[in-house]
Design goal:
The complex is a heterotrimer of chains A (about 240), B (about 210) and C (about 260).
Chain A (H helix, E strand, L loop, with lengths): L8 H5 L8 H32 L3 H15 L2 H17 L4 H26 L2 H9 L4 H12 L1 H16 L3 H6 L17 H10 L3 H32 L3
Chain B lengths: L3 H33 L4 H29 L3 H33 L8 H27 L2 H5 L1 H20 L6 H33 L7
Chain C lengths: L2 E2 L11 E12 L2 E7 L2 E3 L3 E5 L6 H8 L9 E9 L2 E2 L7 H7 E4 L11 H11 L8 H11 L3 H4 L12 H13 L5 E5 L7 H14 L4 E5 L3 H7 L2 E6 L2 E7 H6 L4 H7 L5
Parallel strand pairs in C: 5-10, 5-11, 8-9, 9-10
Antiparallel strand pairs in C: 1-12, 2-3, 2-4, 2-6, 6-7, 11-12
Classes of the chains: A mainly alpha (about 240), B mainly alpha (about 210), C alpha/beta (about 260).
Chain lengths: ~240, ~210, ~260
Amino acid sequence: MRGAPELSLGFLVNNNSAGGIGPAIQGTLILIGFTSLFGIPIGILSGIYLAEFGNNKYATAMRSINDVLTEFPSIVVGITAYGVIVIAIIGHYSAIAGSIALSFILIPIVARTTEESLKLVPNSVREASLALGAHKWRTTLSVVLPTAKAGLLTGTLLAVARIAGETAPLIMTILGNRYFFQGLNQPMAALPLEIWRDSLQPQASLVAQGWGAALILILMVLSLNIIVRLATRGRLKR
Amino acid sequence: MSRIIDRGLEDQSVLIVRMGELTYETLALSIHGYIEGKSVQAQVRELSDILLSMAEKVEDQTFQLIARFQPVATDLRTIKSYMKIGNDFARFGRYAFDISFINDQLSGLKQCEDWTRDYVSEMSEKVLSMVKLSIDSLKKQDIILAKTISESERQVDKMYLEYLHNLINGEHPNSKCVISSALMTRYLERIADHATYICESIVYIVTGEKVALG
Amino acid sequence: MTSTNNDQTTTVDPEMKMQSIDLNAWFGQKKALRNVNIGIKTNSVTAIIGPSGCGKSTFIRCLNRMHELTPNAKMTGQVLLDGQNIYDKQVDPVQVRRRVGMVFQKPNPFPTMSIYDNVAAGLRLTGTKKGKNLDEVVKQSLERATLWEEVKDDLKKPGTSISGGQQQRLCIARAIALQPEVILMDEPCSALDPIAAAKIERLVVELKRDYTVAIVTHNMQQASRVSNFTAFMYLGSLIEFGSTTDIFESPKNPLTEKYITGEFG
């Protein structure tokens, strides 16, 4: 509510120095987009493997690692990314480091929700397909996945909404930036960071800006949730 | 373990055995009446009617059991055979009545010579014992006992044919005797046949095999 | 004439569309089938009856190589289809399942597909739809499954929007669309009401004209109504096999007698 007064086009689009959070919005979108582009497919494929083909010890090991990762405090992810990527590999704060850090949060969640959604598909459906003489991969692709679509979609979008709001990993990796996107290799702005930083500032105007950023972030997450609801309503008509 | 159908089967069994005993009584009464020249028509008629209605009851209960319980295997063979046996018993009742009828109408063996009387008497006793045997093996579901009827059946058939030959060769001047004894021996022979059928049914119930004991 | 397990021949019988020879099966350590020798005669309906746990479902799942899909499942012995062992090393189980179709206890149409798509699913999923007029195939299959009249105006509706009995006929149509040679049915009526079940039973009797049918059922009256041959199984073994009239009028094995007259089961 406190953020509402701040909303104006200028606020959204201008960069920091001009009293806007444009870079933060852009940064968040780039971050989410990039992370999802690589993270979602990997997560879904892992989930499929675990659910449909994972009856061996490799799968069990993978599942355990996955479970641990989902429980990881995000600050730990952040610090690890800092140590490994920012310091060791790249050498400085950058957007890509943030993306990698976030993917470590995204992928385990997507994998787990995918696995669980697929497990919810009754075995009778698989058997029906196999009994017709369909190959296992074909069964998974054409029968099991479509049946689990609703769950997959929900899980994925909620995971994305989650990383949209992650602050801690970003602190250590992308640092934040007053300016618009300057390349994946460079520090970048993001909404959670913006909120966090602004709220700690003494100036009232900056705090207000923080509220505005918070509102924007909430609206983004909310719309994602609404999209999920709308998209799955059709599917759930059983 | 007792099943729902067991009660119905038990009722059927009790009815059939009672019928068997009544049948024997009826036949014995009528046959002895004929041999000894006593008139028993009214009594026999009454008994025969009772047997007819009992046979109907057996038939009704059979169809009820089939409709309600869809019996299979031994149960099915039992039910099917009981119905047949019930009809056989009712038929015995009719023969008994027929015998008492010719006894009255044709004065039985009164017009016949002694040797005829002895012959028919011997044949009658044999047939009566066959009927008794069939009822006993039914009661005990004893197929070994049932199979022993073959011998008697052969003997009775032989006796009947022999007697017919005698008649054809004109051993009796008295036509009343001829007709009366011909009919009587004919009835006796048929009674023997049906007693044999009853024993065949018992073998069928127990083993599922359809045998010919004649 | 019925025979007990000892008499069953283990030589190849050309009259049999399918034949199991010394079939043994396990779930892990638990033995589910013991030396089962059963022949399924071409263009007939063979019923497999027996109390729960006797192995009848396991048996027919060995006939289309579905048994091996269960983790820790094992089998030994042979299963012949037209004289060829379907468990030979060079035989592809997927190909077997296209020739030997299956209908399950609980109707399982694909939930995300329409009625039309369900029937066509077999062809699409196995990549055998080339050169076929799908509309024709769908119509014919639904007709053979006696479902066409009831759904011909609703082909786009979801497969799960019809009643249980109709869903089961849909599953039968789906299986038939692939033109299998054998249709295996695992208690296809047990989840249905009596009227729907009766429709399926009539269908089964008709199907034997063009297919060979093996049906597992725990309903003995159903077995005696629809089948030409009956196999009685108990604790994983075949106890008795024979024509249905013989088995139900004069079974040879006392255990068979006990089971079909309801003394246990």
